[in-house]
Amino acid sequence: MSNPLYETLFGKYFGHTTTFLLLPNGKTISHDSFIRMAARSANALSDMGLSVGDRVAVQIDKSPEALAVYAACVQSGLVYLPLNAAYTSAEVSYFVEDSGAKIFICQGCKEDELAAVAEKSGAMLETLNADGTGTFTDLTRNKDDSYNTIERDGEDLVALLYTSGTTGRSKGAMLSQNNLLSNAQTLVDLWQFTDRDVLLHALPIFHTHGLFVATNVTLVAGGSMIFIPKFDLDTIIENLPNASTMMGVPTFYTRLLHDSRFNKDLTRHMRLFVSGSAPLLAETHEKFEARTGHRILERYGMTETNMNTSNPYDGERRAGTVGFPLPGVEIKITDSKTGDVLADGEIGEIEVRGPNVFSGYWQMPEKTAEELRNNGFFITGDLGTIDSDGYLHISGRNKDVIISGGYNIYPKEIELLLDEQPGVMESAVIGLAHPDLGEVVVGILVAEKGETPDLDDLSIIFRESLAKYKQPQILLIIPELPRNTMGKVQKNILRQEYKDALMQLD
Q1: How far, in Å, CA of 198 to CA of 350, rounded?
Q2: Which of 152, 331, 361, 391 has a CA positioned 20 to 30 A from the CA of residue 96?
Q3: Strand 348-353 relative to strand 378-386: parallel, antiparallel, unpaired?
Q4: Which of 42, 21, 41 is nearest to 30 (CA)?
Q5: What secondary structure does DSSP assign to 177-241, as a single string?
Q6: What is the rounded CA–CA span in Å between residue 205 and residue 128?
Q7: Phi-psi map region of 168: left, alpha, beta (phi>0 left; psi -120 to 50 alpha)
Q8: Per-residue pLDDT tens for 316-373?
Q9: Which pLDDT score, from 0 to 100, does residue 164 have?
């Protein structure tokens, strides 16, 4: 096989008129039509001078054309770099420049704003809109709908996904063909996906969950997807009767449970509901089962590893756990300081090893060495324990990440921005529990002596510098931050003391 990932996900569908994508407007796209769309994109990229290993950065809306760019990159040996559409130009500038992207495809409405980013990085700039129009689409229009697939090895780099770090500097996780392919094939078997499945897909495709789990699993199985741009309650309920499976984040399920239309009659025909990207509350599990008769299947993964564990398809899906290691994946719980393996029942650092684990961080050998052991185990930064039945429980996050609406937010990035502002001496950013989003960001700051920071001005700065989901929902000024004897800020105390602060939002 000349290009394992392409042939397994895409190449096998030439000439297949079976339905791949069902769109909200009633339009359908066959597997064959999609593969030809991707081939035109691959030819366009090739004619622009891109060659094997070049990075393709995209910050575009979810659409069939956007998904075709991913397929085109796989076919032509390019490295795909998807970026959250909510990122500001300041954030995008770092990703494009650090990756050395040769082309940057953005939304048409942001072309003027992002032109300087592309110019600074020496990247070509093209546009692609939610409706499929744009300068990049224009380039593909008259291209051949077949492409000579570039030979690639299973260990070759296929995607670069940036994940923020606790130091504030984002890290590019390098994912190979084997990383993606092994995970997709394992999940198809484990979750019993077939060509008869219709996946209700409302996840973003700039993220591991929506792209490498939902999409790749569907393609390996030969099924189809109801391809919805984003989560919209009415659209989800309207399309559920035509689906057999759904993947979502906890926020999806909490919002569905708030709607009386979501009931047993609506979901009776469904085969599987999967949740990930953030912890699912036991209460949500219980309410969901009582309402629908279905037990949500919760799994555990991350950017650097794709999926690591899953509750069983057949067997007890235990609330408060993320199940067992996937076939071929090893999980161990270790002492954060010594690295020694802990006994079952003890809380420690979760480490994972398997074909799903990435090869390292882009141009960050020191950071790679810190988090990826010589024996192949990746130190996740998450804390957990394995119970007597073998289920993995996530206890907390050693890296202090906040998860809001399924998105990872790293406090240090926001703290660095806060600390730069006039009148601010120091700051601490915490996450507080939220019934819908899981957590929201709260900024706590200490003013310089004799100064009173303008909170309204700070809010404006956040809107200009940070994606919306990262912006603090509340800013508080306090006399001093609580610290332990070693001088470390005790965020657990802050979370406890200000746990009711969200009432200010009501």
Answers
A1: 34
A2: 152
A3: antiparallel
A4: 21
A5: HHHHHHHHHHHHHHTT--TT-EEEE-S-SSSHIIIIIIIHHHHHHT-EEEE-SS--HHHHHHHGG
A6: 14
A7: left
A8: 999 989 999 999 999 999 998 889 999 999 988 999 999 999 999 999 999 999 999 9
A9: 59
Tens of pLDDT, residues 476-504? 999 999 986 546 788 889 988 998 887 76
CA atoms within 13 A on the CB side of 57: 29
Contacts 24+ apart (CB under 8 A), 364-373: 364/171, 364/172, 367/165, 367/171, 371/304, 373/339
Q: Please state the rounded mean pLDDT for residues 133-143.
A: 97
**Residue 203: closest CA among 251, 266, 256:** 251
Prediction pTM value: 0.86
Kindly state the DSSP code that residue 155 receives in the 8-state scheme.
T
Quick check: helix, strand or coil at residue 253?
Answer: helix
User: Which residues are registered as beta bridge partners of 273?
Assistant: 246
Phi-psi region of 180 (alpha: psi -120 to 50; beta: other; left: phi over 0): alpha
Tokens standing for residue 354: 């398997």
C-alpha–C-alpha distance, residues 215 and 41, integer Å: 18
Asked if pLDDT for residue 183 goes beyond 50, the answer is yes
Q: Which residues contact 177 (CB under 8 A, 6 or more apart)?
A: 3, 4, 5, 152, 153, 154, 155, 156, 158
Q: Which residues lie below 8 Å from residue 231, measured CB to CB, with a gap of 6+?
A: 202, 248, 251, 252, 255
Say whether pLDDT at 27 is over 60. Answer: yes
Q: Which of 229, 235, 252 is nearest to 61 (CA)?
A: 229
Question: If residue 497 lies in a helix (H) or strand (E), which one and from where to where?
Answer: helix 491-497
Q: Is the dihedral of CA 103, 109, 110, 112 positive or negative?
A: positive
pLDDT band with cut points at 50, 70 and 90 for residue 251? confident
Q: How far apart are CA 184 and CA 326, in angstroms?
A: 11
pLDDT reported for residue 131: 96
CA distance 122 to 100: 8
Q: How confident is the model at residue 182 (pLDDT cuts 50, 70, 90)?
A: very high
Its sign, for the CA torsion 330, 331, 333, 336, is positive
Q: Facing residues of 349 across strands?
A: 334, 383
CA angle 27, 267, 254 (to 5 degrees): 95
Q: In order of start, what are the domains of the chain with their CATH numbers?
A: 28-152 (3.40.50.980), 402-505 (3.30.300.30)
Closest CA to 472 of 446, 503, 443, 506: 443
What mean pLDDT value characterizes the chain? 93
Place of tokens 């406890």: 496
At residue 400, the pLDDT reads 75
Residue-wise DSSP of 79-148: EEEE--TT--HHHHHHHHHHHT-SEEEE-GGGHHHHHHHHHHHT-EEEE--TTS-SHHHHHHTTS-S---
In percent, the amount of the chain with pLDDT more than 90 equals: 78
